[in-house]
């Protein structure tokens, strides 16, 4: 088995955001329950308990934000390459994607790898807008590759800031 790629420090960041999303899910759920029971009782809200449909709507909105964040990170992690290995004997690529509490291994035939697109995302527009109002922010450079895989609905995400352990094989499998 040849090690081709590992996400390195980027994997730590992804896992940290995944943990934050779980914490947000818990906090949003608790806040949603509190809103459904007490919305409107604060003096700033009128001092009277709001009608049940309004309380349920606010609780559902806040709770769904936490669910959406955690679900989004789960989907992202399921498609984020934490490590890639190649088995020359079976001609298979072994992908390790990120989960909340571990990694998931996928064995994929080389023939099932599809198109590869390089993305070079920066936040120049946001940085320029922030600078225009006097609040400079650093420019973030986040290059990545999307790799289509037969049978997968969404592409694999290969962070270009990761560590390429076998450059020739990486180019052969994923281009550029």
Describe the structure.
A hairpin with a 4-residue loop joins β2 and β3 (92-99). The strands form 2 sheets. Strands 4-3-2-1-8 form a 5-stranded antiparallel beta sheet. It has a 3-stranded antiparallel beta sheet with strand order 5-6-7, with no helix packed on it. It is 42% helix and 30% strand. With 176 residues, the protein is of the alpha+beta class. It has 2 domains: 2-9 and 82-174, no CATH class; 12-77, no CATH class. The chain has 4 helices and 8 strands. It has helices at 9-38, 52-78, 124-132, 167-174; strands spanning 2-6, 81-87, 92-99, 102-109, 113-122, 141-149, 156-159, 163-164.
Q: Summarize this, please?
A:
The protein has 176 residues and is α+β, with helices and mostly antiparallel strands.
Residue share in β-strands: 25-35%
Which class best fits the helix and strand makeup? alpha+beta
> How are strands sequenced across the largest beta sheet?
4-3-2-1-8
Indicate the percent of residues in helices. 40-55%
Keyword list:
176 residues, alpha+beta, 2 domains, three-stranded antiparallel sheet
Please describe the topology of this protein.
Layout: E1 2-6, H1 9-38, H2 52-78, E2 81-87, E3 92-99, E4 102-109, E5 113-122, H3 124-132, E6 141-149, E7 156-159, E8 163-164, H4 167-174
Antiparallel strand pairs: 1-2, 1-8, 2-3, 3-4, 5-6, 6-7
């Amino acid at each position: 088995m040849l090690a081709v790629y590992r996400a390195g420090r980027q994997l730590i960041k992804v896992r940290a955001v995944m943990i934050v999303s779980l914490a947000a899910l818990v906090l949003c759920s608790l806040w949603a329950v509190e809103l459904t029971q007490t919305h409107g009782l604060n003096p700033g809200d009128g001092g009277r308990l709001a009608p049940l449909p309004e309380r349920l709507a606010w609780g559902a909105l806040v709770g769904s934000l936490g669910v959406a964040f955690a679900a989004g990170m789960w989907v992202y992690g399921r498609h984020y390459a934490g490590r890639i290995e190649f088995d020359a004997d079976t001609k298979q690529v072994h992908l390790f994607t990120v989960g909340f509490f571990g990694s998931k291994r996928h064995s994929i035939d080389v023939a099932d790898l599809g198109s590869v697109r390089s993305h070079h995302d920066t936040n120049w527009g946001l940085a320029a807008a922030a600078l225009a109002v006097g609040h400079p922010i650093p420019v973030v450079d986040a290059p990545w590759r999307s790799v289509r895989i037969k049978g997968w609905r969404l592409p694999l995400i290969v962070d270009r800031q990761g560590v390429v352990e076998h450059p020739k094989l990486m180019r052969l499998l994923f281009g550029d």
